């Protein structure tokens, strides 16, 4: 595996976005330490949006990027019925949406039939159609870091996956109505 961007270097990758950032999210679970308190509260039945899902560095950055015309968007590939984490992420997406991100949803079986890289999961950010940040995770679903790639063939593949995923996915509200 190549050297991975982590910590401040990982965050700086998003500060360099000039036009847009798109993420294809294909995992059924993300083990994000900062989300644990919010996830546990959600699982305990508390559904108010606390500060952890409304504010913070990520939300500040995406809010600023949206104001500057550099939108962040993602398509989440989800298995149905939803697992606990997917239900939480669907609920917590309200904070991302309020910060200016656009998040769409696509059923895993449909995504696989369309040729999207879902088994095994493949998560990546397409940045300005110039770079790909392939995300690597450990066996416990914790992010290890991002491998930054810029070869044209890889970029073209990710652009094609983005186009398929975006065209066939639905908004959060439409997805919620389909459940």
As for the number of domains, it is: 1
Radius of gyration: 16 Å
CATH 2nd-level architecture? 2-Layer Sandwich
Detail the poorly predicted runs. none
In DSSP terms, counting alpha (H) and pi (I) runs of 4 or more, how many helices? 7
Mean pLDDT: 94
The CATH class turns out to be Alpha Beta
What is the string of helix and strand elements? HEHHEHEHEEEHEH
CATH topology name? Endonuclease, Chain A
Strand order of the biggest β-sheet? 6-5-4-1-2-3-7
Silhouette? globular
Structural class: alpha/beta
Helix content percent band: 40-55%
End-to-end separation: 38 Å
Determine the strand fraction and express it as a percent band. Answer: 15-25%
Largest sheet: 7 strands, mixed
Task: Give me the count of strands.
Answer: 7
What is the secondary structure topology, with strand pairs?
Blueprint: H1 7-15, E1 21-25, H2 36-43, H3 57-67, E2 72-78, H4 84-98, E3 102-107, H5 108-113, E4 123-127, E5 131-137, E6 143-149, H6 152-168, E7 170-171, H7 172-178
Parallel strand pairs: 1-2, 2-3
Antiparallel strand pairs: 1-4, 3-7, 4-5, 5-6
Please, could you describe this protein's structure?
- The mean pLDDT is 94.
- The protein has a 7-stranded mixed β-sheet with strand order 6-5-4-1-2-3-7, sandwiched between helices.
- The chain is globular.
- The chain has 179 residues and is α/β, with parallel strands linked by helices.
- The chain has a single domain, classed as Endonuclease, Chain A (2-Layer Sandwich), CATH 3.30.870.
- β5 (131-137) and β6 form a beta hairpin.
- It is built from 7 helices and 7 strands; from the N terminus they run αβααβαβαβββαβα.
């Amino acid at each position: 595996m190549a050297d991975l961007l982590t910590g401040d270097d990982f965050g700086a990758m998003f500060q360099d976005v000039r036009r847009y950032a798109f993420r294809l999210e294909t995992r059924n679970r993300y083990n994000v330490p900062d989300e644990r308190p919010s996830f546990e509260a959600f699982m305990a039945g508390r559904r108010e949006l606390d500060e952890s899902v409304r504010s913070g560095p990520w939300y500040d950055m995406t809010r600023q990027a949206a104001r500057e015309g550099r939108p962040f968007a993602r398509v989440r590939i989800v298995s149905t019925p939803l697992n606990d984490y997917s239900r939480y992420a669907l609920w917590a997406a309200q904070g991302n949406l309020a910060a200016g991100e656009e998040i769409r949803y696509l059923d895993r079986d449909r995504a696989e039939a369309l040729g999207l890289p879902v088994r095994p999961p493949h998560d990546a950010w397409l940045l300005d159609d110039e770079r790909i940040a392939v995300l690597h995770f450990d066996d416990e679903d914790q992010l290890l870091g991002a491998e930054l790639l810029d070869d044209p063939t890889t970029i073209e593949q990710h652009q094609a996956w983005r186009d398929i995923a975006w065209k066939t996915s639905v908004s959060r509200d439409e997805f919620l109505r389909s459940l």
